[in-house]
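Regression test case RT-17, inverse folding.

Input:
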């Protein structure tokens, strides 16, 4: 059996193949297409939850700053 070695980033390449969803049915069984479409939806929902969390944390940070009040110098 051949030993698998970690390749350096300089020797690796990423290959991306884009296939319109309409053509999925030509290459993959219907059940596979359904899983891929659901997986795509789940990734988008995960990203939405990260964005919602970040928005909430920014809003809470703004509430904390405004709740402190302002210092007024009295002469």
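Golden output:
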């Amino acid at each position: 059996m051949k030993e698998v070695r970690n390749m350096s980033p300089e020797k690796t390449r990423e290959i991306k193949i884009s296939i319109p969803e309409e053509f999925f049915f030509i290459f993959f069984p219907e059940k596979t297409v359904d899983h891929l479409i659901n997986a795509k939806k789940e990734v988008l929902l995960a990203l939405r939850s990260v964005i919602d969390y970040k928005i909430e944390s920014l809003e809470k940070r703004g509430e904390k700053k405004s709740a402190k009040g302002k210092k007024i110098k009295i002469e």
